[in-house]
Specification:
Elements lengths: L2 H10 L2 H14 L7 H13 L1 H13 L1 H5 L5 H28 L8 H26 L3 H36 L4 H21 L1 H6 L3 H6 L2 H46 L11
Helix pairs in contact: 1-7, 1-8, 2-7, 3-6, 3-7, 4-6, 6-7, 6-8, 6-9, 7-8, 8-9, 8-12, 9-12
Length: about 270
């Protein structure tokens, strides 16, 4: 196996973390799972959302970003983290979810918002992961990046977009919470803070703050763990409410069936023959 093929195989293996995460997300909704075909479709369109995201990011970087400075400056790092990456990518991902499933009859529970949104985020992360791995020149760099993104960036995309889906669905079914816009802003805040922690390492290093530069890695770790617990709480609450709705629907159906049986005329007895 030559070095080129090894590089390619390692890069393509970047799909594995996203696929495993999709399986884990689906298990959250095991009681009343969404149609597999629709889950797959949302994931594919989440992956395709990389295309408009790249176009918008290039436009913003070459226009507004050119006046603010490159990523290795403080203002450039903040702009690229919160606007170019956070705002653009989260908008592209959740718009795919809104377009694909928001008005479909299958989207009938709060948990569905988390499943579809997280799957769209993971479709995006799958493509982004492979692209980043291909950009690495050395096998060692690939392996380090593979591990870091598998435990941080890939789950992060599911968490950030999952937050939007959770809060949008809660507003839709209960009329409570932050809703779609509030969820989007929360996701942008988490996504932007994550990327900003990474980007700030360069200006800190250039100014000689080597210890602070190395400590910036703690930002993504803390944000991913915090985001995980927030989304887990939202998922648990969604399941509780969905289970309660399902129980009420089952009770109402049983009551209706009992009433229907009670209203039926009595079955006549056997006709005497003699």
């Amino acid at each position: 196996m030559n070095s080129l093929s090894t590089h390619t195989y390692v890069a393509l293996s970047g799909v594995i973390p996203a696929l495993v995460a999709m399986w884990l997300v689906d298990r959250l909704d095991a009681k009343r799972p969404e149609p597999l075909s629709l889950r797959v479709r949302v994931s594919i369109f989440g992956a395709l959302s990389v295309i408009p995201a790249i176009i918008l990011e290039l436009v913003l970087s070459s226009t507004v970003g050119a006046h603010l400075g490159p990523e290795f400056t403080y203002q450039g790092a903040s702009f690229h983290a919160f606007v170019v990456a956070g705002a653009v990518e989260e908008a592209c991902k959740i718009l795919m979810v809104y377009w694909m499933v928001w008005r479909r009859p299958e989207f009938d529970e709060r948990m569905d918002g988390i499943v579809y949104a997280a799957r769209a985020g993971l479709g995006f992360a799958l493509v982004e992961n492979v692209m980043y791995l291909f950009s690495q020149d050395t096998l060692n760099g690939q392996l380090q990046l593979w591990i870091m993104r598998a435990v941080l960036a890939v789950p992060g995309h599911a968490i950030w977009t999952g937050m939007i889906g959770a809060l949008a669905a809660r507003k839709r079914f209960d009329g409570r919470g932050l809703g779609l816009i509030g969820g989007y802003l929360l996701a942008v805040a988490f996504h932007g803070a994550y990327d900003c922690s990474v980007f700030l390492a360069s200006p800190l290093k250039f100014e000689g703050h080597f210890t602070a530069s190395k400590l910036t890695i703690l930002g993504p770790v803390v944000l991913t763990v915090l985001g995980f617990f927030i989304l887990r709480g939202l998922a648990r609450r969604a399941l509780e409410l969905d289970d309660a709705d399902a129980a009420r629907a089952a009770a109402a159906y049983a009551h209706a069936q009992a009433q229907l049986i009670a209203q039926m005329p009595p079955i006549p007895g056997p006709i005497p023959l003699g």
